[in-house]
Amino acid sequence: MSRGVRIVFLGKLADLAGEEAREVDAPLDWQGLLDALPGPLGEAARGERTRIAVNGALLADKAALQAGEGDEVALLPPVSGG
């Protein structure tokens, strides 16, 4: 059985998603990620302050997202200052 891409939601994004992680079909690119995240979650992912990491490496450009079978894509919410 093939493994998909695991999307991990951190912080307030996990609250928004109602789950900490979700499996989607591989391969996954930026448009595929947006398609997998409807409504407010997709809007949050598009936000310029939301960062994306693939297998622990932060992407400088979210649109460059390319993930394959067994990869983990983490969505990191903006860090609130204090």
Automatic annotation (TrEMBL):
Pfam families: ThiS. CDD domains: Ubl_MoaD. Gene3D superfamilies: 3.10.20.30. This is MoaD/ThiS family protein. It comes from Alteraurantiacibacter palmitatis.
